[in-house]
Amino acid sequence: MASVGFIGVGNMGSLMARNLIRAGHSLKIYDLSEEAANFVAQSGAKAVKSVKEAATDVDFVVTMLPVGANVRAVFIDAGVLEAAKPGAVLIDSSTIDVETACAVHAAAKAAGYEMLDAPVSGGVTGADAATLTFMCGGDKAVFEKAKPLLQGMGKNIVHCGAPGYGQVTKICNNMVAAINTLAICEAFVMGEKLGVDRNVLFDVLSTSTASSVMLTKSCPMPGPIPSSPSSNGFKPGFAAKLMMKDLRLSQAAAQSAGTPTPLGAVATAAFAMHMANGFGDLDTSSIVKLINPDI
Ligand code: NAD
């Protein structure tokens, strides 16, 4: 069993850390929010007072932070890259921009550490059930070293390639998910306005060529799936503001790659309007309100 310093125990990190504890690993926890750290400590981890303390004398440092600036701050400014012991493997599971991911990889390498960017898909449900998909960027040998630990938090552990490739894969996935969700919203609002019951639409679309995970797992129309966020006041789930963040990352990546993403651009504009309407804290599926504000 490994020793782990886990930094950032919010909605996702708290559940992931708890699964590592359940798997028998010994954890030190740090979060800017003492309350968040203490909550996880109740499951059997040691809450510590600084990034450096969390990173000292552990086999793995895992971070689950909101944005790239936080990742840079934790690894470089707050001292993971000074405090970690030689041979420690550093894993950043936050969803961040490719540029920062590559910069932190380079800084880790210069300081003598092995690192993976390993963002996840599966949301809080997957984090709770330890069924997350991990998309990993970094050396294959480092991936193999980290895999047994990641298996304590996820089911599909995938090596995507070089440093930063985990983040590239993650934003590709989320750009598709956002575009798909918008398409489903348009179809349901149009179909219902023309008289077809939403449950009939769901039955047919979910078993025909329109089917997708975004439809069958988190149908944006309230009703057809009683357990979906849309049927429960759009309580997240995956907050629309996080999808907004990922769409912005996708558009920055598309620009740097010089590839056209017209549908990604429309989805980004749609979610920006949804933010302006004040719905950022609702589940991503609440984007249906942009098509029909009465829902
Ligand atoms: P969150 O805001 O709930 O948790 C982040 C935690 O990091 C907070 O507790 C915060 O206090 C802590 N933090 C921030 N800066 C810190 C610092 N400098 N030092 C220590 N702690 C710090 O966010 P979340 O929902 O857990 O998401 C984390 C990451 O996972 C994001 O990049 C998000 O895009 C990604 N993600 C989230 C979901 C989801 O469903 N929530 C799904 C997939 C991926």
Account of the 3D structure:
The protein is of the alpha/beta class and 295 residues long. The protein folds into two domains: 3-162, 3-Layer(aba) Sandwich (Rossmann fold); 168-291, N-(1-d-carboxylethyl)-l-norvaline Dehydrogenase, domain 2 (Orthogonal Bundle). Helices cover 50% and strands 14% of the residues. It is built from 14 helices and nine strands. The protein has helices at residues 11-22, 34-41, 51-55, 68-77, 80-83, 98-110, 123-129, 140-150, 165-193, 198-205, 213-216, 240-257, 262-276, 288-291, and strands at residues 3-7, 26-30, 46-47, 60-63, 89-92, 114-117, 120-121, 132-137, 154-161. Strands 3-2-1-4-5-6 form a six-stranded parallel beta sheet, with helices on both faces. Strands 7-8-9 form a three-stranded mixed beta sheet. Strand 5 (89-92), helix 6 (98-110) and strand 6 form a beta-alpha-beta unit. Helix 4 (68-77) packs parallel to helix 6. The N and C termini lie far apart (49 Å). Nicotinamide-adenine-dinucleotide binds at residues 7-13, 30-33, 36, 64-66, 70, 73-74, 94-95, 120, 123-124, 238, 242, 245.
